[in-house]
Amino acid sequence: MIVDDYTRYTWVFFLYDKSDVYELFKSFVKRVQNEFQITIKKIRSDNGSEFKNIRIEELCDDLGIGHQFSPTYTPQSSGVVERKNRTLNDMARSMLSEYNISHLFWSEAINTACYCNRLYSHGKLGKTPYEPLNGRKPHIAYFSVFGCKCYILKKGTRLSKFEKKCDEGFLLGYIPP
Prior knowledge:
Layout lengths: L20 H16 L5 E4 L8 H10 L2 E4 L9 H20 L7 H11 L13 H5 L14 E5 L12 E5 L7
Parallel strand pairs: 1-2
Antiparallel strand pairs: 3-4
Helix pairs in contact: 3-4
């Protein structure tokens, strides 16, 4: 989902069913408006039935959000979104392939690719996509590579003097912001 065409900041949501779109969109709008103190003026979506229904339209009307639909069977009219989707898919495919990870973890790879997007510089702004929205540079001190070995500290358990204090793991992604 693209928040703003200018900043190119991206969030990805995974749905179990298309009927979940309404609740997800409603919470997304509240979160964006509260977290960034902005008002969403308009959204653009394809002609999918998950977006083209009475509940979404009523919500948009109540919140004063204009809802535009792209023409049917013309993915090129959603160029930015289609390129973003392709980029995230390509990055995820590369990460899964690089570390021989099962395709069952595709959503974690997509989330990590999306998380990494905050580090790339935006050509026109000379800033990362994270900066215009948050007013500061992203904190990347703890940024690790997808698929690397990691250690998970055992907290809250009593360990004997010579027991291992952590378990070995495999980094598959980050907690969404």
